[in-house]
User: What shape does this take?
Amino acid sequence: MVMSIYVIAYDVGTTGVKTCLFEISDKITLIESAMSGYDLYVLDNGGVEQEPEQWWKAMCKTTKMVINNSGIRKEAISGISFCAQMQALVMVDEKGDPIRRAMSYMDNRAHKETEKGIMSGFRLSGLNAYKLLRSILISGAVSASVKDPVWKYKWVENNEPEVFSRLYKWLDVKDFLVCKATGRFTMSEDSAFATLLYDTRKNKKQFSRELCELMGVDFRHLPDICKSTDQVGILTDKSAEELGLAPKTPVFSGGGDASLIGVGSGAVEEGETHIYMGTSGWVSVVVKEQKLDINNMIASIVGANPGFFNYFAELETAGKCLEWVKDHLALDEIGVFLDGKKVWEDPESIYKSMYDFMLDRVKDVPAGSNGVMFTPWLHGNRCPFEDHYARGMFFNIGLETGKTEMIHSVVEGICYHLKWQLEAIEKKVKTKPLIRLVGGGALAPLTCQLLSDMLGREIESVDNPQDVGAVGAAITAAVGLNSIESIAASKKFIRPNRKYKPKRSNTEIYNRLFPVFKSLYMNNKKAFHTLNK
Assistant: This one.
């Protein structure tokens, strides 16, 4: 008989934290969960910020809720771990207290720093040739995006010198919470890689002093590096009291959402692909060797499974587009059905309610939405083109167009973009035929079938697809506690739910319209820049 353990996993997203209590034996069982939201501050200068202490308060609130509601004694919790949004900049002092708001992964204000830091001098592919080549050699990637953390760091240095003078360590979201829990300043390997200052070469696996010098980063500001499955420390008396857990409970590093959602989806072997539809979205393929596509802004990121990388293409706004639909196209008609609930009160509410509505109202809209197209670039775009001035639009609306076609076209627009990313990925790496779809979007059979039709591929969903990040975090704790042998061995714990096969007639329609979707960016690029610069 397999001895069971209890672990708590925190899924720290853009709009809220979901705290999950799991029992792990010969399977992974969700016992209880709770959610709490926090603010996202969008500034006029392109800044996007959050209050780190709000993350911690949401953690404390939801931890007490799951313990109280589950009936499990706090002393029975074997460990806690984390899955979180990545590429934020959390600056803390020697006590671990934030010295300013965190700069979100969506923050794009550091234009001058990016241009000066990586786009000056002799250039290749628009980037400083020497820095580009050294970055690729050392880290396998390059800080080419205005949203990359190093330029946020430089922005604070240039614009807030008094704040910068108090900086002790640069952390990411998860690593700040680990610090609050344990008092230790660390980053997991995937978080360290996301700084793009990490040396991925064999027998290195550490921050690169050379890259720090090239990018103008003080090496002393970087924390210690650990594995996702490492026990970083134990809960301090203070953090245990605030969380409502037992002092000295083991704390595991966990990882970022880009790596642990893949683990929670069961895509851990070479060539296995998962697509995530949450607030953001992405296509990710497990690869053995690092690949880089500068033209399409696709890189191989360090994952939680040792020896493997995730070849990763990101869409900034996926579910966020559906939140917009909910608030501006649907809520006026179905406010009673949705109870007027704000999406930030429950980051998954949009899927539990909006998709139910869509199944009823837009299921009969034909493939192609009667010619209407939507571009899902509500906060710019990163891949396969980087342009923070790009925006969403409805294209080809006629007098006969109704809201049902428009709502349906939003889901199609997200899927078109994911198809574009998969197309770019498959120019560099081989993928297995079956694709796992996870995130809140996978709760709706309509979305699963539409994506299958769009890609012309079989799509498979898993149990509780909206919780796969937390499942991935729970797995890191279980591996650290020797309850699961390894990240690779965790695949057998992930149960597939349902498989969707493409409808050939719909796939033919989407293949015919796909070039039109791709043309919408280049045809409107100048207009985007004129309107949004």
About this structure: Confidence is low (pLDDT under 50) at residues 334-351. Residues 5-107+150-253 form a domain with the Nucleotidyltransferase; domain 5 fold (CATH 3.30.420.40).
